[in-house]
Amino acid sequence: MVFNFPPHRDPPHPEWSIEQLTEAFKSFDKDKDGQLSKAELRAAFNYLGSRFGYGRGRIACYKADNNNDGLINLHNDELTILVEYAYGCGYKVV
């Protein structure tokens, strides 16, 4: 017997503009060091509606952390890559 389950997707998200996504991520820089840790990324993805914020945060860090320091810099292209990843996860950019 073969089971064909549909691929997992997070529930539908509200539509976010690029600026809103960018500001949402920036707002989770709780220690104001200009970078997002994995914990801050997890909290941001939870805020955006992800049921799997921990996994989303880890994958986002893997994809966007160009200098491999374990943090997402909010003042360079790492933030752009992070926003593009969020869009690819289904967070609609209008």
Automatic annotation (TrEMBL):
It comes from Morus notabilis. Coiled coil: none annotated. Keywords: Calcium. GO terms for molecular function: calcium ion binding. PROSITE patterns: EF_HAND_1, EF_HAND_2. This is EF-hand domain-containing protein. The keyword Calcium applies. Residues 16-51 form the EF-hand domain. InterPro entries: EF-hand-dom_pair (IPR011992), EF_Hand_1_Ca_BS (IPR018247), EF_hand_dom (IPR002048).
